[in-house]
Amino acid sequence: MTPRDAGEFERALRALETRYWHDHPFHQRLHRGKLDARELRLWAANRWYYQRCLPQKDAAIIANCPLPRVRRTWLERIAYHDGRTAADGGAQRWLQLAEALGMPREEVVDERHLLPGVRFAVDAYVNFARSRPWIEGVASGLTEMFAPGLMRRRVEAMREHYPWIAESGFGYFHNRIEATRGEGRSTLALVLEHCTTRDQQDAALAALAFKCDVLHAVLDAVDYEVGKR
Ligand SMILES: O=C(O)c1cc(C(=O)O)c2c(n1)C(=O)C(=O)c1cc(C(=O)O)[nH]c1-2
To answer: Any idea where the domains of the chain sit in the sequence?
Structure first.
């Protein structure tokens, strides 16, 4: 089959937003102020596993990519999450959020609250990046095109409904919203540049759909656990 032109391909990628996790029932309850502190802590402790695996996912993309230009820019993502020192970076900011929710960082870091479904879903994301061509790993990260609106809505809703959360807890999202603006654009540009055959475009679309499934599976597991308690 003939490849889609760039505009058509971009529209097909963006159309997958309907499969994104913004309206997952757990997010809906989070945004409506329906969660109690214990449920928010469980969410933060489990999202931690996603946050901490992201640099390994990004390292796998770099390991599979033969292009120095791409590896050089992608390396920034690892530094973003891991920090330039042990005291900064996205992972540390996530731990500050967990602390603002009342979850001691030791309990997050030792993963005692990590649910099996979350582990399986996040591990599947890392394994996808390890085993698939690098550009498919890149395409799976395109959920970031959809993330800024969701994160803004989340911060607003959390400020409104959970006023007990200290402002220091929101640093993660403020920082991430800024970072995602640039990253989302450059990720899309890479995918448009390197997926030029119909098969490559189909694989990129499948990668993005897979990633939406990973995110849903994470929240399904948290939601199920909350419902049991
Ligand atoms: O809070 C969110 O809703 C959300 C979503 C996503 C996403 O869509 O994958 C990411 C993040 N946050 C995030 O903070 C983050 O660092 C991140 C990295 C990636 C990725 O796939 O490389 N996605 C996301």
So the answer is: 11-228
Ligand 1 atom closest to residue 22's alpha carbon, by position in its atom list: 3
* Residue nearest atom 18 in ligand 1 by C-alpha distance: 54
- Contacts of 72-80 with CB under 8 Å at 24 or more apart are 73/186, 74/138, 77/183, 80/179
Q: What is the pLDDT of residues 98-146, one digit of tens each?
A: 999 999 999 999 999 999 999 999 999 999 999 999 999 999 999 999 9
Rounded to two decimals, the ipTM of the complex is 0.91
Residue 211 has pLDDT above 70, yes or no: yes
Query: Which residue minimizes the CA distance to atom 9 of ligand 1?
Result: 143
Whole-angstrom Cα distance, residue 153 to residue 31? 8
CB 195 within 8 A of CB 201: yes
- Hey, whose CA ends up nearest to atom 1 of ligand 1? 151
Mean pLDDT of the chain: 95
- How far apart are the CA of 123 and the centre of ligand 1, in A? 15
Residue 51 Cα: closest atom of ligand 1: 16
Q: What is the pTM of this model?
A: 0.95
Decide: 93 and 171 in contact? Cβ < 8 Å.
yes
Please name the residue that has the structure tokens 């890392």.
126
Tell me what the mean pLDDT of segment 167-193 comes to: 88
11-228 domain in CATH 1.20.910.10?
yes
Closest residue to atom 19 of ligand 1, CA basis: 141
Between the CA of 146 and the centroid of ligand 1 the distance, in Å, is 9
